[in-house]
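Fold it.
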Amino acid sequence: MEAASLPAALELVAGGGSGLSPEKLAVLGSTLTLLQRDYRFQRVWFWGCIQGLHGTYYIAEGLGPDCAALRSRLYSFNCVEWYLLPPATEEMVAQAMQLVGRFQGDPSFEYELTVVNTEDAEGLFEDGKEPVMKEEARLVATIEQIDRAVGIVPRGAFVKTPLGSVHENRNFEGLSLTEAKKLTSYFHFAEPVNLRKKTLLEKADLDPSTDFLDSLEHDIPQGSWTVQVEKGGTVVVLRSLLWLGLTFYHVPMTKQYGYIYFGTGEKNFDLPFML
């Protein structure tokens, strides 16, 4: 969620139990602005919180001119002092998927990896050490997983230029209430996967400048999203059942939208059995 609209946005998603104390909101209003200035970000989003056993990680994301480029991610324990996280690699994401259980709330905590690849196995024979993963690496890998799986935007909110860069669509004025209640009106703000699998006939119906992302209609398992109209029909709220704690909101016919995560950073693997 954008720093400037954070207090109002949290009011709109409060039905999901999301919230920050007035003190935290006041501090974030100033520190996120400083982050944008100091790191020269084009825009800064307050991503949300991952609650550990002994501490809570507050997460912010910084974007450059190309909104589809690699994002910078920072964490804080008090919303005042922020620490830059390393970029998430595919190896880190794969390792994080092996881990289960709550975060500790200690970036230096080390997890033992029980499943190893061939290179790791060879290393065990050489130095006799078990492969480990620091919680800081698990943190950024989990954020990456959540962004890929359930980080969403309304259709038309961003445009792709002929050169391939992605920018905010200044002509976007919001979805109608009818469209806002459809899963097809929302896209994953991540590298598309299902878009490549569409037939030529299906691709012919797409606008390459706005329909360059995967829509939620193909998400697996089906039924992993809930769509509700709240606040007397003035806001549409989507909640993920796959990553419990992820809430998206959009005020129809306006540019107001965003998502936020308040959870433990654990994927709901039981979802297929719950549907």
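The radius of gyration is 19 Å.
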